[in-house]
Amino acid sequence: MLHPDVCGGSHDGILAVHSLSKRSNLAGYRCAFVAGDRSVVAELLAVRKNLGLMMPGPQQVAMATALSDDAHAREQHARYAARRDVLRPALEAAGFRIDHSEASLYLWATRGESCWDTVAALAELGILVAPGGFYGATGAEHVRVALTATDARVAAAVRRLGA
Fold this sequence. Notes:
By secondary structure, the chain is of the alpha+beta class. It folds into two domains: 4-69, no CATH class; 72-160, Aspartate Aminotransferase, domain 1. The protein is built from seven helices and six strands; from the N terminus they run αβαβαααββαββα. The strands form two sheets. It has a four-stranded antiparallel β-sheet, with helices on one face. The radius of gyration is 19 Å and the shape is globular.
């Protein structure tokens, strides 16, 4: 969103947040940074001082190390893509339609029923998903299937779906 082709060359009013949770598999570290409009970033820095939001030194070192190495991020991206490549067709073969899931860590799946009915049906198979209704009214008939589960759990879900 900060690329000139997207923002028209101006970062005015734009604040981008980048987390290393999924990129570098650092979810528990709570490592992220913000970039964009200098005045908005300056306001955040001023507020941060009063809220005690200073990131501890070990986290800063882990974040700097992760940001200096793109190879592990490419490996993580490939891992998610491989999980998508097996999980998506298994869900589709089980009667699901996948919507708006081209480049995320999740598959948004629907069978055209209440998300809660889908959650219950998948839970009976031992597959845990998030009800789309948690994310707003447009998700009422979808479930969010995470690609962040281990390869073994994804393979088990594929088997349980009958694929």
